[in-house]
Design goal:
With 422 residues, this protein is of the alpha+beta class. The protein has a domain of 140 residues. Helices cover 46% and strands 10% of the residues. The chain has 15 helices and ten strands. The strands form three sheets. The protein has a four-stranded mixed sheet with strand order 2-7-5-4. The chain has a three-stranded antiparallel sheet with strand order 1-3-8. It has a three-stranded antiparallel sheet with strand order 6-9-10, with no helix packed on it. Strand 9 and strand 10 form a beta hairpin. The model has no long low-confidence stretch (mean pLDDT 90). Bound molecules: zinc ion. The site of zinc ion has 7 residues, from helix 1.
Length: 422
């Protein structure tokens, strides 16, 4: 038995997608995925009757999710249409040409109003990590060694889900654990840097987010809203999420699921990458600054983290070509950046870091500039979300991943302290 929350959860969707493996054409896999998505959704029960981790007996929550489920079943055609539209775009790519298909993906995003829901600047105002294999040939304390693959070495840019072979971009990850997975290289063999986008920059640039909006709404946002406002009504159009937003949430989630379809066979052409790469191209053509997308790696070894943590998130910043430089140096104007200088002891405790943050908050209250605070609020939240998580029985902040993150957090706090005091 399943409910809407455990059905739309990424792990369950991954299972449904992997059940389509074995079919010899990607378009057939997409059709089979559509069928199983529809079959399963028709069999869902109330969250109050499910025995999954999302079970919640709050009567308002149950009422809201029951109304949502009922309304979804009345609108099965929205789900069918969304799948069909995306499958048609893929078929256009394989039967017509890239240009036609890319234009179609753009008009799909426009027609369904999926482009305007860019994240608020606050969401991005946090730390992201970037690593490269440490072959001892470069200075690890120089941030210039951590930018994108240089323009004269574009031959090294391989085919990735959200990037096109030969097109350098700057890949960032939300957690060190995720970075290790993305690079398939043990953490001890990596040199690591960290970046914080300037808050202000995110009001002037557009970023696109691929995410499971429906799951976020039902499992992350809604319980939080209901705990604050007990009377939230699914049919009340003033508060989101609601009946009007849910159609868009559903479309965005299906789009996100299809774009993160697991790869069955890695060849020189990877059909699972066609739709994500065309999306990237369309965003580039239309002056977006980058794209945020969930990792498709397996994070199941991590337990007990707060559901609101987004340690699985990746962020790609598009770079601008320079004729005179090997790098798009202008990118550093929009980012605070941090590297290791060799003096790191990697022994901070969570409490020591939280004390440092408190010192910044305290000083900041007395200063006139509150521009420092938003990244620290986000980092503090991230610590709360991850504090009880464990990997193979070891608490996250006692693992090498967590220790590296805390070391960077300390650098951030130190920088802010210096800036405020100055
Ligand atoms: Zn459930």
């Amino acid at each position: 038995m399943s409910c809407i929350a455990c059905f739309i959860d990424n792990n369950n969707q991954k299972k449904l997608k992997k059940n389509c493996f074995g079919l010899d054409r990607f378009e057939l896999k997409l059709k089979k995925y559509k069928e199983s998505f529809l079959d399963e959704i028709k069999k869902l029960n109330s969250i109050s009757e499910c025995d999954c981790e999302f079970k919640n007996n709050n009567s308002n929550y149950v009422k809201w999710t029951d109304s949502f489920l009922e309304e979804t079943l009345n609108n099965i055609s929205v789900i069918e249409d969304t799948f069909n539209d995306i499958i048609t775009i893929y078929i256009s790519y394989i039967s017509e040409n890239t240009k036609t298909a890319t234009d179609k993906i753009w008009s799909f995003l426009q027609k369904n109003d999926l482009l305007n829901e860019t994240e608020s600047g606050f969401t991005y105002s946090t730390i992201y990590f970037r690593a490269r294999i440490n072959d001892n040939t470069f200075d690890k304390s120089d941030i210039n060694n951590f930018l994108h693959i240089p323009f004269n070495k574009r031959g090294l840019v391989g085919n990735q889900r959200f990037s096109i072979s030969g097109q350098p971009m700057m890949y960032l990850g939300k957690s060190i654990y995720g970075i290790e997975k993305e690079l398939s290289t043990p953490i001890n063999n990596l040199a690591i840097s960290a970046f914080i986008p300037y808050f202000k920059d995110f009001y002037s640039k557009k970023y696109f987010t691929i995410k499971n909006t429906l799951f976020d709404t039902i499992a992350k946002t809604l319980p939080w809203i209901i705990a604050k406002d007990h009377d939230i009504d699914y049919y009340d159009s003033l508060l989101t999420p609601n009946r009007n937003s849910i159609e868009k949430d559903l479309k965005k989630s299906i789009f996100s699921q299809i774009l993160t379809f697991p790869v069955e066979n890695k060849g020189s052409f990877i059909p699972e990458y066609v739709l994500p790469q065309m999306t990237t191209t369309a965003l580039l053509e239309n002056n977006f600054g980058g794209i945020v997308f969930p990792s498709t790696k397996n994070f199941l070894a991590m337990e007990s983290h707060n559901i609101r943590s987004d340690h699985e998130s990746n962020f790609t910043v598009f770079v601008n070509y320079s004729q005179n430089n090997y790098y798009d140096k202008a990118i550093l104007k929009n980012l605070l950046h941090f590297t290791f200088d060799g003096n790191e002891k990697l022994n901070y405790s969570v409490n020591e870091i939280l004390d440092k943050f408190e010192a910044v908050f305290e000083l900041n209250r007395k200063s006139e500039n509150d521009y420092f605070v938003s990244p620290l609020i986000n980092l503090k939240l991230q610590i709360e979300y991850m504090e009880n998580s464990k990997i193979e029985g070891v608490k996250y902040y006692e693992t090498q991943y967590g220790k590296i993150e805390l070391e960077f957090y300390s650098k951030v706090a130190n920088l802010y302290l210096r800036k405020i005091i100055k």
